[in-house]
Write a structure and sequence with these properties.
Layout: E1 8-13, E2 26-38, E3 41-47, E4 60-63, H1 84-88, E5 98-103, H2 110-115, E6 119-128
Antiparallel strand pairs: 1-5, 2-3, 2-4, 2-6, 5-6
Length: 130
């Protein structure tokens, strides 16, 4: 479904019902992200969902509502994806949820806004810090 902020959301699993608290809940997410070149072409950008420890082995983290990377400073490509778009699903699903999303560049972080690149998240899994 298309949401008010122009993000398209497809819920695969709504999670366990435990909802994120705005400005408080630390969220860890893993995802497969693809760039959208045109209506027929998508290319792999990042996959920290299926790869084990290694370059893409860490989850991306942010505090729900602040929607900016909240961990230690590191040079890690998946952290560039943190923004309003990646957090949008948490208004509709709970911990352990799995979703798909198409996020326009204006709802992504600075890197994507400045390069005008929309992102297709073919799978995003959310977990919360205990």
């Amino acid at each position: 479904m298309k949401l008010d902020n122009d993000v398209y959301l497809n819920v695969i699993d709504s999670g366990n019902g435990n909802r994120a608290v705005l400005g408080t809940t630390k969220v860890f997410c893993r995802f497969e992200a693809k760039g959208i070149l045109d209506s027929d072409t998508a290319y792999n950008m990042v996959n920290n969902l299926t790869y084990g420890p290694g370059y893409y082995g860490f989850p991306t983290e942010f505090v729900f509502g602040y929607n900016v990377y909240s961990g230690e400073s590191r040079s890690y490509d998946p952290d560039l994806f943190v923004g309003e778009g990646l957090a949008t699903a948490l208004y509709h699903v709970g911990e352990g949820a799995t979703v798909r999303m198409i996020v326009p560049f204006k709802r992504m972080g600075n890197y994507f806004q400045s390069s005008y690149v929309p992102v297709y998240f073919s799978k995003v899994k959310y977990t919360f810090e205990k």
